[in-house]
Amino acid sequence: MIMAMLLSLGHMEYAYIIFSIYALLCFIWGIWQRESFWQRLSYKLLLAAYELMIYHLNVRTLEYYTVPLGLALLGWGIAYRDESEKKGILYALGTQIIYLPGLYISFKETWGLHGVFLGCISLVLLFVGIKLRSKVIVVFSSIVLVLNGIIQSYSYMLTIPRWVYMASGGTFLIIMGMLFELKRERLQQLGKDLVEKWRDWE
To answer: In the chain, N or C: fewer CB atoms in 10 Å?
Structure first.
């Protein structure tokens, strides 16, 4: 099987078909034998078939390659429910594969396809990370969401006079100071509760 797949790589028009067939056979064999190994192998072969297919179709949009791979790694991380170390590594790899290439490209454009998509996917994965109680996904998604927002809005922000930022920042600080004085105990308790919940996350 391995030799056939390696030989097929020289003919991309057949390679993804062969990989898909082997993925289907592994999946059926895994169900027949009731072994999860073959089912996991079938998912990996299917992902490889997808990557080979879009390469053969001359697709050059980066997200078509990176996002499915990153999401697959996140999915495999979810499968390791009782192994927090493996889960954390897979989460970190998955989010970086999704975010870093798109973030690099978005530096060169303003409100282009890559930047808009990156903002949307980082927001979605932020909520997913909160749902999964994953520090890795939440931290990476939050950083990328903020950075991408700054990158996309930078040219617009330069057109706004400085006094607007100073006035807005001063007003914000005054309001926050007033709220803290009026609701000090409640805010302190809320902060402690959030820290305790954060510590319980993986």
So the answer is: N
Same domain? For 14 and 72 the reply is no
Q: Tens of pLDDT along 125-172?
A: 989 888 888 888 888 988 988 888 888 776 666 666 766 667 777 776
CA nearest to 179, candidates 191, 167, 187, 190: 187
- The pLDDT tens digits for 58-82 are 888 888 888 888 888 888 888 776 7
Dist CA 35 CA 33 (whole Å): 5
Task: Report the candidate in 29, 66, 21, 80 with the shortest Cα–Cα distance to residue 45.
Answer: 21
Domain span including residue 130: 62-159
Are 85 and 116 part of one and the same domain?
yes
Between CA 15 and CA 80 the distance in angstroms is: 30
State how far the Cα of 163 lies from the Cα of 105, in Å rounded to an integer: 32
- Label residue 69 exposed, middle or buried (CB < 10 Å: 0-12, 13-18, 19+): middle
Number of H helices, E strands in the chain: 9, 0
Q: How far apart are CA 21 and CA 29, in angstroms?
A: 12
